[in-house]
Amino acid sequence: MNEKLKVISLAPTQTEIIAALGWVDNLAGVSENCDFPESVRGIARYGSWYSPDLRRVVQAEPDLVCTFGKHQEDMAEALREEGLHVFHSDPPSVADSLETMEKLSAILGCPEAGGRLVAGLKARLANVARKIEEIDPVNRPTVFRIMNWEPLISAGPGSFQHDVIERAGGINLLADGRLPYMVCEPAEIRRRNPRVIFTCEGFITGALRSDPLWMQVDAVKHQRLYVFDCGLTCRSGPRIVDMVEALTEALHFGASSPV
Q1: 63-72: per-residue pLDDT in tens?
Q2: Residue 254 confidence class, pLDDT cut points 50, 70, 90
Q3: CATH tag for 7-90 (out of 3.40.1190.20, 3.40.20.10, 3.65.10.10, 3.40.50.1980)
Q4: Residue 157: DSSP 8-state
Q5: Would you list the domain boundaries of the chain?
Q6: What number is the average pLDDT over the span 78-107?
Q7: Rounded to whole angstroms, how far apart are CA atoms 77 and 69?
Q8: Alpha helices, DSSP H, located in the chain
Q9: Is 22 exposed, middle or buried (0-12, 13-18, 19+ CB in 10 A)?
Q10: Average pLDDT, the chain
Q11: Domain 118-253 fold
């Protein structure tokens, strides 16, 4: 491990991976949205994930900058043009997320830590898979993931969120979609009648319950509405496995209470 490597992470997902690898002490900066684990909260901030202060990042002369997702693709390229070494990822599945962790650990010089991290996560995923194998396919519910309310946005094939739903033993309501993320027509979603709806925004469940049209949907009618922390639902770092486990329990074993 290169103990002197100076790293700036502009994305919560990458920050969580670095922390899980035991590299918090090497983080010279993070984004304002990097809030997990607790140990990263005192680190210097370089703007938000949506709008990082690239000028300050360049001035800091880090050995490595970590970026994430389509939103930061252009930023990553701009930093490369400034001569900085950038690690960028946008994994479309849980498996790709684990591969990202291994790649980043190799770049940081701690592949053994990456191997241990990923091995542990794979073991937990295998445990979930064994549980799902015992469930009759007929009992796999259709699931609608609400990422944004107005406009109504959800996840389709090619997104890690779709993969999380499938691994948890659900059937993504938009499994036939053409895009990883898409704006949805509310009337069409209601017509498809999902049995379960989950989100990371608590106000959305109230909006669903107060709308007579949505009240006709099975998920709302039977109170199969779930709210999970955004840190679980929206990030593909190590806690992506926490999300698979939590959603599995909610869909099939009732361990998570609807809200």
Answers
A1: 999 999 999 9
A2: confident
A3: 3.40.50.1980
A4: T
A5: 7-90, 118-253
A6: 98
A7: 12
A8: 12-20, 54-60, 73-81, 94-108, 111-133, 160-167, 186-192, 202-209, 218-221, 230-233, 240-248
A9: middle
A10: 96
A11: Rossmann fold (3.40.50)
Interior CA angle at 189 toward 184 and 194, to 5°? Answer: 135
- Region 88-94: mean pLDDT is 98
Same topology, domains 7-90 and 118-253? Answer is: yes
pLDDT at 255 over 60: no
pLDDT at 259: 46
**Residue 226: closest CA among 169, 161, 146, 154:** 146
By the 8 A CB rule, do 113 and 21 touch?
yes
For the segment 226-250, the average pLDDT, to the nearest whole number, is 97
Those residues whose C-beta lies under 8 Å from the C-beta of residue 40, and which sit 6 or more positions away, are 15, 19, 24, 27, 30, 34
